[in-house]
Amino acid sequence: MKKKNAIIIVVIAVIAFIATIAYAVTPEKNVKYYTQYQKKTFTESLVNISGAKIKNKYLELTLNEEDLNKLISSIENVNEYRVVLNEKDADVYVPVKFMKVINTNVKVSFDVKAEDGGLNFTIKESKLGKIKINNQHIMKYVKNGAYDKFNVEKRDSSIYVTNKLMIFNEATVGNNELFVRCTLDLKKIANELTNKFRL
User: Fold this and answer.
1) What is the pLDDT along the chain (199 residues), one digit of tens a residue?
2) Which of 103, 117, 147, 197 lies at a CB distance of 3.0 to 4.6 Å from 167, suitable for a disulfide?
3) pTM score, whole prediction
4) How far apart are CA 131 and CA 24, in angstroms?
5) Which distant-in-sequence residues (6+ apart) come within 8 Å of 120 by Cβ?
6) How far apart are CA 162 and CA 177, in angstroms?
7) CB 28: neighbour CB atoms within 10 A?
8) Contact, 68 vs 82, CB < 8 A?
9) Are 185 and 166 in contact, with CB atoms under 8 Å apart?
10) Helix, strand, or coil here: 180?
C-alpha cells in the first residue's frame, strides 16, 4: 500500500510540475503577429506614413503601432513579429514553440534612443512566456549584418541599427508612439525611387 501511495504522489508531483512549466511558458499576452512581407520597399512605405513631416532638413516621424509594424514589414527577411508601443518603451513579440510542443512567445522590452546617427535598442527585460530570461540569451539570436537598407550591430545588451537613407538624430517612445527625427539622404532616396519606377 505504501508503494502504491508513493507512486501516486510521484505521478501527481510530475503532473503538477509539467502543468506549472506549461503555465509559466504560455504567453503573458496574446498578440496578433505581422507575418506578411509587403511588396513595397522601405522608402515607399516611409512615404505613405501619415505621421511623417518634413521640417527644415529633418524628417519627423510620429509612428503609432500600426504604422511602425507596417514599416517593419517592408524589410526583407523579417519574419513573424509584433511591436507594441507602451508609455516609455517598446515590446517586441516573436512566436516560438517551446520544446516543439507549446506555442508561446518571446517578449523583449527595449529602451529606444538615437545614438551616433543610428538607433540604439537597449534590452530592458526578456521573457519566454511569463518566465524572465537572461538578456544575453536574446543577443545570441541577433545577427550582425545588412537587411535591406538597414545595418544591424550587436553591442553588449543592445542592438544598434543604422539606415543607408537617413541619419537618426532623435528617437523617443511616449504615449504609445515612437517619435523619430532624422536627416535624410535625399539623393539616395531619389535614386532608389527613380530605379524602382524606371521603365
Assistant:
1) 677 777 777 778 878 877 777 777 777 777 777 766 566 666 677 667 777 787 777 888 888 888 888 878 777 666 788 898 988 899 999 888 888 878 888 899 999 999 999 999 999 999 988 889 998 888 888 888 887 778 899 988 899 999 888 899 999 999 889 999 988 777 777 777 777 666 5
2) 117
3) 0.78
4) 6
5) 112, 113, 114, 155, 158, 159, 160, 161
6) 20
7) 15
8) no
9) yes
10) strand
Helix count and strand count (H, E) for the chain: 5, 12
List the beta bridge partners of residue 114. 119
Element (H, E) at 194: helix 186-197
Buried b vs exposed e over 176-189: b needs ≥16 C-beta within 10 Å?
ebbbbbbebeeeeb
Q: Is the CB of residue 189 less than 8 Å from the CB of residue 182?
A: no
